[in-house]
Amino acid sequence: MYLAGFRLDRFRRGGAGGRGRSRAFLPATASLALAIAAAMSSPASAAPEPPTGLWFTKNDGSIIKIAPCGADYCGTLIWLKEPNGFDGKPRIDKYNEDPAKRGRSLVGIEILIDLAADNDRWRGKAYNPEDGKTYDITFKVVPDKMTGDKAEIEGCILKILCKTDVFTKTQAVPKDATPAP
């Protein structure tokens, strides 16, 4: 009997040319399958890849530097592709809910807040200077030796309306970087 090009009767007891093979074949196959499954699985409590370093945001519009801050990690906006607004003046945090912070430069503000390890990713908050609001996020580093590490950042409102962005790790800040205040 053939199935997908393999002769099945060889592995059944009493089949042509296969006497006694089933007793050795099944335990060996089961052991191999268990060994492969164990090797491929990773413990759920494994620490996630550290998020430290310089990260280009989507469309390479800005760079966020992530570093330890206390027991967690935080990310500071250190570079903007377009640091000045249409009026030629430095872009400011004009939508911040705190009126005292609305005049501060965007470069130098903390964007990612209190990233703490949670299984294979980081959980924390992200400040969005485009609307002045802070959102719950997850940040997962995706190592890639070919194209450079990426990070998947997912932000949600009420845990049902979610958006994912991808950051790309970089080794250097462009030469035209606006220094943080």
Automatic annotation (TrEMBL):
Signal peptide segment: 1-46
Instruction: Please verify whether the record's keywords include Signal.
Output: yes
Could you name the domain of life of the organism this protein comes from?
A: Bacteria
Every copy of the DUF2147 domain together lies at 53-169
Pfam hit, one: DUF2147
**Which Gene3D superfamilies does the UniProt entry name for this protein?**
2.40.128.520
Which UniProt keywords are given for this protein, alphabetically ordered?
A: Signal
* Name assigned to this protein: DUF2147 domain-containing protein
Organism of derivation:
Methylocella tundrae
What phylogenetic lineage does the species belong to?
A: Bacteria, Pseudomonadati, Pseudomonadota, Alphaproteobacteria, Hyphomicrobiales
